[in-house]
Design brief:
Number of helices of chain A: 7
Helix content of chain A: 25-40%
Order of helices and strands of chain A: HHHHHHHEEEEEE
Radius of gyration of chain A: 27 Å
Helix content of chain B: 55-70%
Number of domains of chain B: 1
Strand content of chain B: under 5%
Distance between the termini of chain A: 51 Å
Structural class of chain B: mainly alpha
Oligomer: heterodimer
Strand content of chain A: 15-25%
Shape of chain A: elongated
Largest sheet of chain A: 6 strands, mixed
Number of helices of chain B: 16
Number of strands of chain B: 2
Amino acid sequence: MTSTPSSNGLRAARRRSLPWQALVDAAMLLLWGLMLLRFTVTGKLYLLLHPDYMWLAHLAMVLLLAMGVSRLVQVWLSYRQGTGQTIRSQEHTALLPRQFSVALLIAIAVFGLVYTPRPFASETAFQRGITDVLGQTRSRPQRFSLGGESEERTIVDWVRTLNVYPEPDAYAGQVAQVSGFVTHIPGWPDEFVMISRFVLTCCAADAYPVGLPVELPPGTARPAPDTWLEVKGKMQTSTLDGKRQLTIGDPTLTEIPEPRTPYEY
Amino acid sequence: MTQLNNGITLFFSLLVEAMPFLLLGVMFSSVLLLFVDEQKLLAVIPKNVVLAALAGSLIGFLFPVCECGNIPVARRLLTKGAPTAVAIGFLLAAPTVNPVVFWATWIAFRDQPEIVFLRVGFTLIVAVTIALIFSAQTDVRPFLQDSLTRIMGEPEPATPVPAEVEISPLLKSGTFLMQSPGQVLQLDAPPAQVLAQVAVAAPPMATRLRMMVDNMVLELRELGAVLVIGSAIAAFVQVAVPREVILSLGQGPVTSIVAMMALAWVVSICSTVDSFFALSFASTFTSGSLLAFLVFGPMIDLKNISLLLTVFKGRAILYLFVLAAQLVFLLALVMNLYTS
């Protein structure tokens, strides 16, 4: 499209035709903004991002919506005045055809508007190697504060504490109260399950599972994987897979609904 | 089914985390396209080849563009008589050595700050080295596309033209518009160049703002689509490839680097957001290979080869590719073998 005012005929023709490209761009921007708005309003953003970086997603949402609206205003103004919409090409050589890019972006935004993200569950935890040991690349804060009482520690607090001082006997008898989802570890005796959580440092892409073994009271049915439980019990040492491990013993199990923020940080 | 759900959650997580940075990137590059005048910039670049190469590599701080925006700028730098060292240094380093990319890498790898700093350090080493190798060739023209050498006009003397020696604006061929005394606007220049000059002549704020939004939408469309494809690949690899395969590939000091460099080349994800992509491999791949991905990807990948072809001939791109690949591989290998 050029904007050279060559003849009246051309101008009249332009007045009648809508600038479809600009309208499609506006739709793309607005849909992406709405998709982020939906994730924010429904709280699903908590499944995707670390809360520290949510303001960035909110900023993106505002920018996208503002750009979309400004595009629409531009289109409206130029349509009313009868001047064509000029899209400058810059020196930007595109790899993907323009229509393809726009179609893909619109399709993803629409998909994001109808699809509800789901938190990671036990199967993924097992696949990603659930453990009470933090690997080489895991967040190991130089300093982290533990809320005075042992029952206020979360699963990741326990795991971080264990990484500093791994001897399980040191914690024997301490009261633990944690919540998480149930994972069955193949090879463990039937009375043991893992109570687990995913930990995020940035976004779901780096979510990694941590967990603590729980020894069920005799006669208790094994809770199904992915059941969310609050577990209260006393710390003890058990030998699982030939390794001495800190275990929550003699627990009371309370089934809880899946929390709004299923990850720990 | 769980796998599919996980894959989609991962995919949206990458998109939602990366989109703000992509927006910031295109916003900066659009603003600076209108406000920074390369001509003035070139005048202050040092003569010494090593310093020039370093300066070229650091210009990225003024043009925070990712690898799709930097090639047009490098092209403009060359047409405006920038020494080869400056243009090559800029071309290779600018997508990585700039504030937006630094910040994004910091957010992704705040638990491993060494990755953030080594990314910048390695990029500077590789960019300056290759810039020096290329500037050993006194006349860079045989490496450039004919269309570009034509724009560059008269053959250069054996030594690079000092940037200040500016040919009078009236002694050039082309169609010009007289502006204020001594200032002309070349009408048949590439659009972005016209834009840059127009910016100096200060068009009304509304026009400038509109041009900025136009450029942002344009870049967002293109880079956004590549981001979607890249995120889909990352999510797919995470959930579909068996973990044992990834681990056996990702833990070898050599195989991990080769794998990540190949991935960087194919995925072509924009440098402002590639750290989030790399992050999804952080638990399974060696640190050296993550760095190789973060340093090599922005320099040369499948996507920007088509862009590079607008500046260089195939042979020169091959040299750039081979040199960059070897240097990055060596640095990453040293990192894998001697740290950790």
